Each structure stands twice: as C-alpha cells, then as structure tokens.
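S1.2 Input.
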Amino acid sequence: MIKPAVILLLVFTVLVSAVSVVQTQHVSRKVFMEIEQLKKDRDLLNEEWGRLQLEQSTWALDERVERTVKEELGMYVPENGSLVFLVP
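S1.3 Output.
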C-alpha cells in the first residue's frame, strides 16, 4: 500500500508541474506578442525610411538646387567672357 505522504508528494509535484506549464505558456504568448509588435514597428520604420529616401532624392534634384541657388543666394552662371582661368 502507498503511504499518504507519498501520494501527497505526488499530488504536490503534479500541481507544481501544471502551474509551471501554464506560466511557461503565458510567457511564451507574451514574448510572441512582443515579437509581432516589433515586426509591425520594423515594417513601419521601413516604410518611413523609403519615404525619407524618396524625399531626399527630391530635395537633391538638380533643378531644385539650381532654383534655390538663384532665388535664395542670388548666384548665377557666369558668362563666357567673365571667366578667368588660372594656370598653375
């Protein structure tokens, strides 16, 4: 016959094991949800990066740079007669 102390120990072990399984599943789901959120954040950042690259290429267009130089800085392309070449 099995002693009551052994049965009590086995029941306690099973309960501890069950609680550990539930806790492990909870942690696993929590980590999975965090990973999914980080993937969404990554995708949003990739979209923003693409938009920023497109914006940068737009700001760096030759026509825009030339227009800004003329309008804001008052610079102009010199005429051929006003060019001076220095020979070292």
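S1.4 Remarks. The chain has two helices and no strands.
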